[in-house]
């Protein structure tokens, strides 16, 4: 179960994301640097207990109206080989020491656990409380489930573009579309979707919105 240390990080996650976000193809350009606050998310456990996995929502108030961004991240005690372009930055954790923070869709540990969540083999955890499942996070798949080609979770093809980040799980396998700019669910299904992970985030006036953090597509509808 996730252990959340009540300690310091220098620089903080938001300080690392402030210069990183404007470099992403899905960032909605604003006239000023991002003005970020954390407004939601959840965690997943790494079965090996080595990698921190967090799905964070940040609100950006730099534009004419707020924008909400979904940033899955992993936290590692050493660099992830071959993932230099996915590095958000490094930080000094008050308990764990130096940590390397990565954009999560490029990390095979996060991808494997996201698949496990959709297959009902992983339980979402509260973002800020240790040993606390988060039942507000829902993972739904239509039909009898889905199969992933052997080894695909460890080496997905990642396409990062203005519409979000898509993970192709093997030749002819399913695809995961990671939503980056969050919008409240309308109740309408995404065209061709087999399933999704939904969760909430806080609104400025004190309410809550829900939306699809990740959408699952079959291989024949992944393009």
TrEMBL record:
Polar residues composition-biased segments: 125-141
Residue ranges constituting the Maltokinase N-terminal cap domain according to the UniProt record: 20-107
InterPro entries: Mak_N_cap
Keywords: ATP-binding, Kinase, Nucleotide-binding, Transferase
Domain of life: Bacteria
Sequence segments annotated as region (Disordered): 123-145
Official protein name in the record: 1,4-alpha-glucan branching protein
């Amino acid at each position: 179960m996730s252990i959340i240390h009540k300690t310091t990080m220098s620089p903080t996650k938001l300080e690392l994301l402030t210069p990183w976000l404007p470099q992403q193809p899905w960032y909605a350009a604003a006239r000023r640097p991002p003005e970020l606050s954390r407004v939601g998310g959840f965690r997943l456990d790494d079965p090996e207990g080595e990698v921190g996995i967090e799905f964070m929502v940040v609100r950006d108030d730099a534009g004419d109206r707020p924008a909400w961004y979904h940033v899955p991240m992993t936290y590692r005690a050493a660099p992830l080989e071959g993932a230099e372009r996915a590095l958000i930055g490094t930080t000094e954790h008050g308990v764990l020491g130096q940590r390397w923070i990565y954009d999560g869709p490029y990390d095979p540990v996060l991808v494997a656990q996201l698949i496990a969540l959709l297959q009902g083999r992983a339980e979402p955890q509260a973002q800020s409380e240790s040993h606390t499942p988060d039942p507000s996070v829902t993972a739904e798949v239509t039909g009898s489930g889905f199969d992933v080609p052997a080894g695909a979770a460890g080496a997905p093809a990642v396409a990062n573009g203005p519409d979000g980040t898509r993970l192709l799980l093997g030749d002819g396998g399913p695809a995961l579309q990671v939503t980056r700019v969050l919008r409240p669910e309308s109740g309408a299904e995404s065209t061709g979707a087999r399933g999704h992970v939904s969760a909430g985030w806080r609104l400025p006036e004190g309410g809550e919105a829900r939306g699809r953090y990740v959408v699952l597509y079959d291989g024949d509808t992944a393009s």
